[in-house]
Design goal:
The protein has 360 residues and is α+β, with helices and mostly antiparallel strands. The protein is 29% helix and 30% strand. β15 and β16 form a beta hairpin. α2 packs across α8. The chain starts with a strand and ends with a helix.
Length: 360
């Protein structure tokens, strides 16, 4: 059997572990110094924005389409296997169009998606108000509605993936830090933890912001830097819904995500490190985000804040996100990292790419 070690149990590493667990000839170990899904995954909104994105061809589109297709089979598969319920909103995404937007771009994208087999609808202001009564349509051009895009709870999903992988024989080691990778020539033959070492035929680094420190000693100059995001959890018991239609609403890169128990997620800021590589949450940016959301959804002004949270997202420097490839000069070390703001969206397609790289 081939010994596969996956380092990192965020959404990407956990998805890889689960998908590889389908192959009986693999002996898989999933390692993380923290609990699953507590890094960037735990601070994500879980919006699966694929069809409504302007990526229409090439690698970026293939990854998005592949992930969306897999999610619709993966969720019921995991729920049946684990007995866990995974909150999964299949009512799509409504993208608001503002005066600076080009309406023809939405119409052109709808035609492209139709040719690809997906429906995408351009709504008038009247139709937007009818379908989404909470939206203040004054000053809007309308909206684009994508019924094929999704939203999922990242924490629930990651827990289900880890449980599913474990039930299929994956050995999970949490609370232990990987210290180094032992290599000889072009191969990594051992992963060294603080208290033990594990032999390896394949090593997969789904390590997010932990990637650069781990591979620097291997002669790699790949840099993955943090970009901070802040978000809010709001209580909104009077949120109006018509005909049980409750999609994600997005506008000017601000996302309103309806949840259970009359709650909404609102996010997220995008904050880069300063010249000293320091990155601290900017309270003013979070206030501005909330105020901008209130402008097109006025009732949010009275919705109390239940929780605010931050998370650091891994963004590659000098390379396109995400990085899914063999580490240069090594035959059996695979990078599956640097997903930036699309880790949840691209996790299934990333896992599929890793399966191909291993040659399963």
């Amino acid at each position: 059997m081939s010994k596969v070690i996956i380092i990192g149990s965020g959404i990407v590493g956990s998805t890889i572990a689960y998908e590889l667990s389908q192959y009986s000839h693999l002996d898989i170990t999933l390692i993380d110094e923290k609990n699953p899904g507590t890094g960037a995954t735990g601070a994500a909104l879980g919006i699966l924005m694929g069809i409504i994105s302007h990526k229409t061809k090439g690698r970026a589109w293939r990854l998005r389409e592949g992930s969306l297709k897999r999610y619709d089979t993966l969720i019921p598969e995991l729920e049946a296997l684990t007995g866990l319920q995974i909150p999964y909103n299949k009512q799509g995404i409504v993208k608001l169009l503002f005066p600076d937007d080009d309406l023809s771009k939405g119409q052109n994208l709808a035609q492209v998606r139709s040719n690809q087999g997906y429906n995408l609808f351009v709504w008038s202001v009247d139709e937007l108000k009818n379908r989404c009564p909470e939206i203040n349509v004054n000053g809007l051009l309308g909206a684009v509605y994508s019924p094929f895009d999704r939203q999922i709870n990242p924490t629930f999903l990651t827990k289900a993936l880890v449980k599913g992988a474990s039930l299929k024989g994956v050995n999970c080691i949490f609370g232990e830090k990987v210290v180094s990778l032992a290599t000889e020539g072009k191969n990594c033959y051992e992963v060294k933890l603080e208290t033990r070492s594990i032999k390896a035929d394949w090593v997969i680094l789904a390590t997010g912001l932990g990637t650069s420190p781990l591979i620097q000693s291997l002669g790699s100059n790949i840099s993955v830097k943090p970009v901070l995001g802040q978000a809010l959890l709001l209580k909104h018991p009077t949120w109006q819904i018509k005909d049980n239609f409750s999609p994600v609403i997005t506008g000017n890169d601000i996302h309103i995500v309806p949840m259970a128990n009359d709650e909404l997620w609102l996010g997220a800021t995008v904050e880069f490190p300063d010249n000293q590589e320091q990155i601290l949450p900017d309270e003013e940016l979070l206030k501005n985000l909330q105020q901008s959301a209130i402008e097109f959804c006025p009732s949010l002004a009275t919705a109390p804040i239940m929780l605010s949270w931050t998370g650091k997202r891994p963004r590659p420097e000098g390379k396109s996100a995400p990085i899914i490839e063999k580490l240069e000069n090594y035959d059996n070390i695979i990078l599956a990292t640097g997903h930036y703001r699309n880790g949840i969206l691209l996790a299934p397609a990333t896992a599929s790419s890793v399966v191909e790289l291993i040659g399963c």
